[in-house]
Amino acid sequence: MARNYSVNGNAVNTQSSTLPLVTLISSANIRPRIYDLTFGSAATPADNAARYIVQRCTSPGTPGSSITPQALDPGDPVALATSGLAAFSVGPTLTVNALLLQFGVNQRATWRWAPKDGKEIVLPAATGNGVAILPVQVTSAFDQAFSIQFEE
Questions:
Q1: How far apart are CA 122 and CA 124, in angstroms?
Q2: How far apart are alpha carbons 145 and 42 in whole angstroms?
Q3: pTM surpassing 0.70?
């Protein structure tokens, strides 16, 4: 049976097509599956919007900090996948045209993606490979809170 983990955080969504808000990076012996994404903001409500893309990457880049994935079942071992949080000083190596998902978020609303079983985003079983979530268009930067749930 798969082990389930969650990566949660928040960061200012500064517009960039090369520096992500967050990454999820695999290792050589697992193929993580992202099965839930949630984006929202706890900042003072305003009519600001952002457009994000989820893009494959072949290196993790240099994140401003790391997020330790948390096991949803306390009996599960530590996750093998890792996660990086903005602000990235060096972006990951993005796979050209490997856009997996695109979504828009308004600061006043919460957005959630939960695919049908078997339709999850699957990361490759290769060290340093994964996905980057990039804020490619932002009307005015705001503090973006997020949750990524995945299984290994």
A1: 7
A2: 7
A3: yes
